[in-house]
Amino acid sequence: MFRTHTCGELRLSDINKKVTLSGWIQRSRKMGGMTFVDLRDRYGITQLVFNQDRNASLCEQANKLGREYVIQITGTVNARSNANKNLPTGEIEIIVEELHLLNKSEVPPFTIEEDTDGGDELRMQYRYLDLRRSCVRKNLELRHKMAFEVRRYLDEQGFLEIETPVLMKSTPEGARDFVVPSRMNPGEFYALPQSPQQFKQLLMVSGFDRYFQIVKCFRDEDLRADRQPEFTQIDCEMSFVEQEDVLNMFEGMAKHLFKYIKNIDYDRPFPRIQYADAMKYYGSDKPDIRFGMKFVEIKDLTEGKNFGVFDNAEYVAGICAEGCAQYTRKQIDDLTEFVKRPQIGAKGLVYVRYEVGGTFKSSVDKFYGQDDLKKWAERFDAKPGDLILILAGKTVQTQKALCELRLEMGNRLGLRSKEDFAPLWVVDFPLLEWDEETQRFYAMHHPFTAPKPEDIPLLETDPGKVRANAYDMVVNGVELGGGSVRIYDSSLQNTMFRILGFNDEQIQSQFGCLINAFKYGAPPHGGLAFGLDRFVSMFAGLDSIRDCIAFPKNNSGRDVMMDAPSPISQDQLDELQLKLNPLEK
After folding, report:
1. For 423, phi and psi rounded to 5 degrees?
2. Average pLDDT of each block of 10 consecutive residues along the chain (585 residues)?
């Protein structure tokens, strides 16, 4: 056999044992008549010793080995005289008696170490080498453990894992589809699923009352740190449930993962916040509640002092940063430049220092006296030593900018540790959102989301005020999962489609299968999907989901390792009866 043990397995209890190991050479060091080689596999690193005095020819062979050579050795386990406490195997070494070179290696394009000298693009090009790094490997091991625990929990709760098709029908109301031409049906196309939404609802109609799937999904959209064109969902659906049943079930799953993966016990229910309050106090439907600094509105306290910025603003609000009154003018100028960035969009920043002596210093002293600023401070519940930061403008844009400012202050004050977790549910989302450009409503989640029963009459009279039976699980400002109770009544589903601008022909063409299935007795049902990539990256403390995916795409959606996407041959195009327009120069 190629090995009797792994490179992370041997300990002092194995002293004098004869063993065979195989792996890659991490590094080698020649010290006098001794050569020391660190041998690495997936499980760890073991030090090998070649002694010139014992076997000169073997030592000479060892001196010719390069980094990442694949070798097999046989030798005896020995206690190390200089133990390495940073390694699990650091108390032993192998006195090598036989050496077999299994494969040579070219010099790697970057060092395969924790702190590598390879840039992102280079590491993605040679991802198979990057995966040898223990920090990347641990991310995939964590992913495996989390997927295993998800399956264990859901199996114990009576869920069945059922696969759904990857080639399906393209439907509107979502991100752009990736489409696949059909050779056997010229001129027609499959789509890759953005989610198995209709299939899992059809499984509920079929009587499979508890379904889940750890499934690949595809969306042709612009990328960022927490997005990839293909990603993995923990997709779940349940029959004969209300919203409370779904929340309790999947809060239980999240607690199971926190317990078995992070050894964190949550003995209380996750907090719940309505969407309207999330926007009011945090300016985001995925608030980070690891720290305070809730928004405080002061428009009513600012009027009538001839300060045009506030008088002409639709919305005036701010945050209170505790203990930051000592911020220098340069630090405040830095914050002002931060909020004026194009991607944030504020026009300026007003500050109020609550001095330790009880007086106030502000950038708007010319317009507001000490009594005015004191009223502001009371509204913010500020104390001497605090710093109040205020933005003004149109409501939605200013809330978004104030959200970014709040998060930036959280970072600067060290309040967003990756080792702290603050889960919550955001509930009662709007069912619909109005688009000024197209002058029509769009589903905020998707067209199968059920409205709150008490809001159904508003569908015909005031659709914009209808709340959805929808919910998101948010942890540390990241949406880890979301879902809804579904519409299961055909007439209500048709009403929803009509509000979204579909006529009868479009409804039947795009959603006919689901609508027809509902005619045969659809149960009440609801579900939720977690982003497995996001969940793993959060537990791993990563800033991007790419490092918990074995073979990710770059920010342009390219696989630089396989060089995909790539052109296909004219023969393939002819077979698919496709003709490409020439690219514009």
Report:
1. -80, 150
2. 96 97 96 95 97 93 96 97 94 97 96 92 96 96 98 98 95 82 94 94 97 96 80 97 97 97 95 97 97 97 94 96 94 96 94 94 95 96 97 96 97 96 97 88 91 93 94 97 95 90 88 90 96 96 93 92 94 93 77
**Residue boundaries of the structural domains of the chain:** 12-103, 134-267+529-574, 291-412, 423-504
- pTM for the model stands at 0.92
Longest pairwise C-alpha distance within the chain = 93
Strands 296-297, 210-218: pairing is unpaired
**Top-level CATH class of 12-103?**
mainly beta
Is 3.30.1360.30 the CATH classification of the domain at 291-412? yes
What count of other Cβ atoms lies within 10 Å of the Cβ of residue 173?
A: 17
Q: Which fold has domain 134-267+529-574?
A: BirA Bifunctional Protein; domain 2 (3.30.930)
Q: How far is the C-alpha of 137 from the C-alpha of 416, rounded, in Å?
A: 26
Cis before residue 430, ω within 30 degrees of 0? no
DSSP letter (8 states) at residue 584: P
Q: Is the dihedral of CA 408, 411, 416, 418 positive or negative?
A: positive
Q: Is 228 in contact with 552 (CB distance < 8 Å)?
A: yes
